[in-house]
Amino acid sequence: MELESHHAQRGFQYTGPPGLEYLSELDQLLVQQQKEILEITCWESPNKYKIVNTMGQLVYFATEDSDLCTRQCCGNLRGFNMPVIDTVGQEVMLFERPFSCTSAGCYCCYSCLQVVFLKLFFSLA
Fold first, then answer.
1. Which residue of 66, 79, 84, 105 has the smallest Cβ count within 10 Å?
2. Alpha-carbon distance values, 63 to 39, 46, 77 (Å)
3. Long-range contacts: 17-22, Cβ < 8 Å, 24+?
4. In the sheet where 58-63 sits, what is the strand order?
5. H helix or E strand, kind and range, residue 30
6. Are 71 and 78 in contact (CB under 8 A)?
7. Which of 54, 55, 97 is nearest to 76 (CA)?
8. Max CA-CA distance within the chain?
9. Of all residues in the chain, what percent carry a pLDDT higher than 90?
10. Per-residue pLDDT tens digits for 91-112
């Protein structure tokens, strides 16, 4: 594999989660949101993102997982999950963002902070 041979030439052995090996070769990724036609009419659809390298080649793809009511009613405060998929269809990480409110006396929400959790998928075996 070309990536492995390049690492071997530099005396580097990747030991991180599978699916993220390519990141060790990059100094930058570009995230491009894909706009939906319905969003022009103020109808929120799940956000979709292409994650590309500096040459514009697709590296990962991410799609927001949230329900219609949450997107329409909660706007940018909504909670969602966003799986990140590599080019062979394998989920390599998952962003989890709980619902977040901004009012000081809010008792109805999970968290009043802007928090995003990141899960990486790999085994130590």
1. 105
2. 15, 7, 17
3. 17/92, 17/93, 17/120, 17/121, 17/122, 18/90, 18/92, 18/121, 18/122, 19/86, 19/90, 19/91, 19/92, 19/93, 19/121, 19/122, 20/92, 20/93, 20/120, 22/59
4. 30-34, 48-52, 58-63, 80-86, 91-97, 117-120
5. strand 30-34
6. yes
7. 97
8. 57
9. 23
10. 988 888 887 766 554 555 444 4
The label of the residue with tokens 């990747």 reads 14
Q: Rounded to 5 degrees, what are φ and ψ at 84? A: -110, 120
**Model confidence, pTM:** 0.68
> Cα separation of 51 and 33, whole Å?
9
In contact, 118 and 93? CB cutoff 8 Å? yes
